[in-house]
Amino acid sequence: MAYDLIVIGSGPGGYVCAVRAAQLGLKTAIVEKEKTLGGTCLNIGCIPSKALLQASEHFHEAGHSLAAFGVIVDPPRLDHAALMKHKDDVVAANVNGVAFLMKKNKIDVHTGVGAITGPGKVTVTGANGEAKEIEAKAIVIATGSESAMLPGVVVDEKQVVTSTGALSLGKVPGKLLVIGAGVIGLELGSVWGRLGAKVEVIEFLDRILPGMDGEVAKQAQRLLEKQGFSFSLAHKVTKVETSASGCTISYELVAGGEAKTMEADVVLVATGRRANTAGLNLDAMKIATAKGKVVIDDHFRTTMDGVYAIGDVVRGPMLAHKAEDEGVAVAEIIAGKAGHVNYGVIPGVVYTQPEIASVGKTEEELKAEGVAYNVGKFPFMANGRARAMRHTDGFVKFLADKATDRVLGAHIVGFGAGEMIHEVAVLMEFGGSSEDLARTCHAHPTMSEAVKEAAMGVEKRSIHI
What we know:
FAD/NAD(P)-binding domain, about 25% strand, alpha/beta, Enolase-like, domain 1
């Protein structure tokens, strides 16, 4: 079977790459080891977690927030089976949507583990052990990532779980211990915390949300603590033991000190993710890797001619939308066009409540780079729509070049932050200034007015504070 392009992996990077290639007239195939398409994101990551976050948010709102609006309801009861059905239905709809896109764009799907076995050659081995070889002018590796394991901690996906097991717990745990205060740990901790679990978080670093703006992380921690989260920062887990009655966690200060123990019903290991390169035959093909990731140049080319790589398996943030943009870019490059990704304008969102969204540089990064900048901030407490919705937690923060006013970064903690961040991303994509946004009329009353006011604040001319 001869193709113009074979994509190994059908996650957001892989399937988007395949669709764009087909649009450009390339005869395209996609190889996927699982029975369903969509990769981690659609099956056991972004999509199911957001389904549970939304459901748990409604449950918490019904039990704690509606009375303030004059809506009186009986204490809500959780139908666990219905909760899981909602999650599964959402996953199925998205997965089936990707399968439809493959048919619509005449992309052949080969189910099995894909290994690169020579120039332009991929061997696909099915679950039954049968292998077949397919060929193409170009190959794109888009195999994504998997949960990183913690030394000495055995995961059974029942009592000690990764994000995969945490999406399918059979009941709400009395106590959930989360190892890692990154995005995954805080989101899934929020799900089960809203449904009634006591959530404790142990983090190796002395702060939560590593890589995000420090002021934003501190505010997020305060808000999560108000919701019942407990944090043990600058601590490391040394051992997790399980029994019929639950889990015993041994942990201690990173700097050293007396060992402590904690009991929990479920332990979630959320210590990051690692590139999934197993079975690709990289060593035999002399495809270089560094720190577990496939090495690529500025045009996504690996060290083997005709082989490219994108997404979580290569350098850069492990984000589905970053992989999608890379998928489009590499397809366009292979088709002889100019593909490009602006890595300086890739937003990131944490889907806690309130949401946390960021794009561009943090204050810490600008200080480290010696860049002079101005700050504009505006609290949602001073926003009329936020008051009406009783979502006044958080703020918008702009960072702009002191000399040129060009926006270098923006950070939002607040209800709907993940949607509001995009007007800043568009502004930055066009090299805009804070004044450009400050002079753009925003509808009233909206949460987005806080974004405008923060932009105005860069020049100390916010109106409502």
